[in-house]
Structures are given as C-alpha cells and as structure tokens.
Amino acid sequence: MSNTYPMLFNDLRGFIEILREIGELVTIDKKISSKHEAATVQMKILKEMGKAVLFTNIDGNNERMLGNIYTSRRMISHMFGVEPQNLVEKVMSFRSARRFPSTFVKKGPCQEIVDKDFKDIKDVVPIPWNYERDANHYITAGIVVAKDPETGQTNSAICRMMYREGRSLNIYFAPMQRNWLIFNKYIAAKKDMPIAAVVGADPFVMFASEGGIQYEKDKFEYAGAMMGRPVEVVPCKTVDLYVPANAEYVLEGTVSWDRTATEGPMGENQRVYGPQGERPILTISCITHREDPIFQNILPGTVEEQSLLAIPMEARVLRQLKRLSTSVTTINLLPNLMNCVIQIGDYPPVQRGVVKNILMAALADPWIKYAIAVDQDVNVDDPDEVNWAISTRADLSEDLLVIKNSWGFVMDPSRKNKIDPVTKIGIDATVDPLEKERFIKADVVHDHELNLKDYLGEK
Fold this sequence. Notes:
The protein is of the alpha+beta class. Helix content is 25%, strand content 27%.
C-alpha cells in the first residue's frame, strides 16, 4: 500500500468513497435526530465496529452527517497509502517535503449555494447536540481560518463553536494557540476579527490544521505537501479570507472583540465536561455550501479527536527525540495524548542514563504528562504489555522521574485552573543493558507467523 504520495482523492467525498469501497463505512438512511441520537449511534459504531458512519437523513430533512473517519492509525493510513506501522514516519517526511502554494480559483464547489439571507444557522447547517450535559449544539470539526492583522499571515485551526440562536455562535480559542494570539491582536486594536469556519474539509487540509508546523508556515501549503499538489482556494463572499474550494460548508463572519456570552459546559478533549466561561460571540454573515452537503462531526474526547491530534504530534516529538538519541525507535501518544510510550532500541552500555534524558525531553512537551520508556520487545500500542513492563522492569526507587511545577496541557482536567503548573512523571521501564539476560521475556515461538486457520480447519 506504500506510495510516494497518498491515495488519490480530491475532497472529503472522494475519501468517503475509498472508505466505502474497502468496507470501512457504515451508511444509515433511517431518520436520526441531531440531538443526542446521532452522537449515540456514532459512538456505538465507533466502539463496536471501529468504522466511519454516514447519516443521510438527519432530523428527517435528508441532511447528511459524517463521523468516525479518523478513529485509528488504520483509518488514517488509508489517507496516506501506507501501512499503519509506517504512518508516523510518513508524516515525518512531510516536514521536509516540497511545499505547494495554494492555487486561487474563481469558483469552487463550496460556493455552489450562497446564503446571506438565512434567519437561523440551524436552518442551514445540521449542527448536532452530542453529549448529554453539553450546553447546546456544537460544531466540533470546524477549521477556523483567520488572518494576523499585523503580518497578514493566515492561520487555520480547529476551534469549537457553540450554537446560540439566529446568526450567533460562541467560539472558543484555546489559550496560547495561534488563533488565540491573533484574536488578542484584534482585541488590542479594538476591532472585530473576520473568520471563516470550514466544515467538511479535505482530510489533508483537516490533518494539516492540527499538524503543529511553525507559525510562519502556511498550513494550506503543508496540506499541499501531503497531497503532492496545490490546495485550490476561493475568496470568501463577505470577509477578506480564502478557503479550500472543495469544502462542504463555509460559515463566514466576525468575532466581536468586546462582546461575550456564557459558553459551555461541553464534553472536552479528555472526556470530561469543561466549565462554563465567557467566550467571544461570533456573528455569521454568510453560509456557503455544496449541493447536498455533508456535515462532519467529531465526538470530543474519543479516539477520533485524539488520533487527529496525536499522529502529527507523534511525528514532531519523535523527530525531537531521535535528534537526542538514535536509540529511540517509535512512540505512541494514543489513546489520550497526555501519556507517551517511547520504544528504545539497543544502545551502548556506556550510555546508561540516556533513557532518563529521553524521558525528560518528552516531558518538556506541554501536552505530555506521563512518559514511559520500554524496550524493543514491548509493543507500544498494547497497554497490557506497557503495564507489564512497568510492573516487571521498573524499580521505582531508581527509575521514577517526578518533575514538579511544569507547564502542562491547557485542557488537563486535573488542574484546578488553566494557569496552574502540573507535576509530570517519567518511568524508565527498560532493562539495564548490563542485565538483559535476566529480563528475557517468556514467550512462544514465532506466533506472528502462525495462521490459526491452518489449525481450525477454516477456509
């Protein structure tokens, strides 16, 4: 399945067809309510089938909604045309790949329908109400495009948006993230911030929006590097911004620099309800969309959200750790981003202590709260094996690192508030190079080469 460039598809619909062809998509034509029911079915399919789901009759209006397309390494690997075990290396390669500047076009599918006269956003967009105690309907997979008023640099990143009524939403900018920094420049200038919220973007545009590239780099160009061709963009109708031409929905509007309203609670990244807070008000001036558009919904805190964030982050962190030591072979940040498992290959016995340096380097990342180092014979994707390594190979009197008062992940629910420092922990669960014989794993012979069908009589 390995290719120089990813599988060829032109937009989200093209990827949906690939998933359909390979049996990774469930289609539900039954009438489904956007309030709770759609999310419940989406979660059930995620847990029991691990497949994407396409609803075709939301609220009995024949509106379409998609979920679960980034739910595992396997699903994301279909985007890039590689095997799951090669996914992080593939993503790492895009850091130095050729960039493709965006191509401007006059017309695009995202503007097949232009609606400036709508009265209520929900009359046009089937925004779901996901979790039981969410405060309202939420857009969870919206890529918010904004322009730095000082540099003219455009940024795109996923921001949650809560439906209020009429043309109004609340928008949440995560502190210290790029759109937050841009918005604060508008506040300082006492000006409203124009934005465009893209829902149903090309998977590569979505992936690039969470790619963690440098601030001065263009994320649409980064998406082009992944695709091996430029991203086509069109100018918005009511704001001075441009958006991917093949998106499903685009909501154009302005974020008030001084008007706020209560937003939340909402089920957040770590599957807890974040507290209510005063968030900026976003007023939508225009909604454009494709004919028969597809709304995309990501259930916060599930492996879909985590995978979308984790794969680019793994590529970034792995690259940093490999610079420190070539003994680092791979890492795993799933299922919840805050725990990092690092696989260590052979290194010279004279380098005893190098694993602790690797752990400290991993813990320097704000997202990572726990870092665990294991040997080559431990599968970093198997929590049972990682726990076994900790139980049998870590002497916590010697192999435990405790780092207090560190800057941590802003949405860590264990923090009493978002400015408190956190305590981070590293565990060296690797074997001392001088004692390898004492820790050989008891195992059967070549079980990965055995096919049970040969023994069970199955054809």
